[in-house]
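User: Continuing from earlier, I have the next pair ready.

Assistant: Great, send them over.

User: Here they are, in order.

Assistant: Folding the first of the pair now:
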Amino acid sequence: MPKLRLNAYNKGVMPDSFPAHRYPSENCRRCRRLVNQFKRLSVKHPDYWNKPVPAHGPSEASLLIVGLAPGLHGANKTGIPFVGDASGNLLHDVLASLKLTGRVKITNAVKCLPVKNLPSAQEVNNCSRYLKDELEAHRLIPDATLLVLGGVAHKAVVKALGARQADFPFGHGAVHHVEGLQIVDSYHCSRYNTQTGRLTRQMFLDTVQLAGNMAYS
């Protein structure tokens, strides 16, 4: 069993999916505007996590889900990716429907809450080293599969793997094989995408099921 550590926000337990050195430290200062944002949020929301959010889930899981970044009232509050907001509710509802709960790792391409929910290109680049380490560790697992949520996260993954973007274009439901990893693309399960109809629950379920079948066939 993976080592457990306490989540300071909800006092739950959170498995160490990867060694601690694979994450930015709590005092990371690489992205100045995100550091300044955390300072403001520590005053406005002193009970929130308000620091880089590590991956969550069993280290041996064959399916790794990669989102874009923590949400203000989701992972930035709870300290756990995709827990606490609408996108997380949809993701975990679908995982439960497919009996994948507890069988996936979940992370984000950018570990800190971005300003206005959209990280800059430099902020994505600053976190690329940590994403690369996560992907390299995941690649060692049999049937290693990624479910990548959204075009920005997809580009971050392709770049972290050292591949050419033109060779692996993003598309909902698209499947790629890159550097020993099976990759399934999906539109992000954000409230915006679901409210506008860009992504329906069935569309999302189909892509998660496809990734799950590839990881656990």
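And the other member of the pair:
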Amino acid sequence: MAETTKTQSRLLNLSGCGVAELPAEIGKMDWLRTLFITDTQVEDLSPLSALSNLEELLASSTRVADLSPVVSLTKLKFLFLSKTRVTDLSPLSGLTELEQLDLWKTGVSDLRPLTRIKQLHRLILSSTQVSDLSPLASLSHLRILHLAHTPTFDLSPLAELEGLQQLDISYTQVADLSPVASMLQRGLTVRDSCRYWEGPGIYIEGCPCSCR
């Protein structure tokens, strides 16, 4: 912390260092652009509310549940919240510069707060409670969407997302791929696996459409 203050480094990495509370002085570091607090016991993000220039917040594997302190972080582009206690995305509704959002293994179910985040191009929702994809229908910049291990069954809200390059629906209830036929028409392949790191395509391992 002292070194970051002295040099005014744009990056502060507190990951895995046993932090349970964010120090109050972090709120004065308005030069910060990137903050790592992954794998900590942090629960309260309030000290970050004044960091209006923050662009990247990596808070996966923390105890964070309340996102209200990030309402003022309108320059955020990358927000990683996997394996946290987050359920309510309402505080994100005004973060219109967000490009990547990772919510893997959270309790999120309602995506309506994301409807205004038009710049979003990577959205990770695997192992959440999401079933209704209609709030994503207008997110035309979306390129990567992961829905594995969710109650999702209807892909029709994705029909107009012609920029979609990677769709992971492994272990969902999706049986009909026709709403995303445009992905196939663009030469993308259906992959009967869940190894999304293999690249673009539709990943269908473990869902009803895998037999087609």
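Worth noting for the second one:
The longest helix spans residues 2-7. The chain has one domain: 2-211.
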